[in-house]
Amino acid sequence: MRLTVNTVEETQTLAARLAKLVQPGDTILLNGDLGAGKTTFTQGLARALGIRRPLKSPTFTLVREYQTENFPLYHLDVYRLGEEGGGDELGLAEYFGGEGVALIEWSEFIQSELPQDVLIIDLSRLDQDETGLLRTISVRATGPRSEAILAALEK
Ligand SMILES: Nc1ncnc2c1ncn2[C@@H]1O[C@H](COP(=O)(O)OP(=O)(O)O)[C@@H](O)[C@H]1O
Ligand SMILES: [Mg+2]
């Protein structure tokens, strides 16, 4: 699935649709460069789950946990592990496949910790066109659970 998003609202509308589909144990990877919209997407998803607390990027804490009505939401941003490495010693895998839903920014830095079945959301900023900055969001699945989410999202 691939779509063009022209505004923050469009990005967050997709995130809100995803919020209706996630279940405890789901892991979602948010890929894309700095400024691609990973945190913006997560904010849209969190708000749709009824989280009122402002969602701040957890760059220095690695993980922030939010409580929703039904499950915890874990927002991971492991960007700083890129320089330091050592992600596999931090026990981050405890956030995946358990009682909560995990969204991960810069998951490539904890590759060996990730479960097999994940929903991957690629956010990208393409070149400037005459109407502004073109952005696209692509979603793909790597296993049965994420395939089910993707199928529902495509409806
Ligand atoms: N369509 C869009 N989707 C997401 N963010 C957008 C969009 N258009 C503009 N922006 C802006 O781009 C920035 C994205 O920042 P952020 O979500 O923090 O990126 P990341 O977490 O990927 O580094 C925000 O300032 C946001 O307002
Ligand atoms: Mg971010």
UniProtKB/TrEMBL annotation:
Keyword presence, tRNA-binding: no
Location in the cell: Cytoplasm
GO cellular component, one term: cytoplasm
Superkingdom in the source lineage: Bacteria
GO molecular-function term, one example from the UniProt record: ATP binding
Residues annotated as signal peptide: none
Keywords: ATP-binding, Cytoplasm, Magnesium, Metal-binding, Nucleotide-binding, tRNA processing
GO biological process: tRNA threonylcarbamoyladenosine modification
Magnesium among keywords: yes
Annotated family: Belongs to the TsaE family.
NCBIfam families: T6A_YjeE
Name of protein: tRNA threonylcarbamoyladenosine biosynthesis protein TsaE
Organism encoding this protein: Weissella cibaria
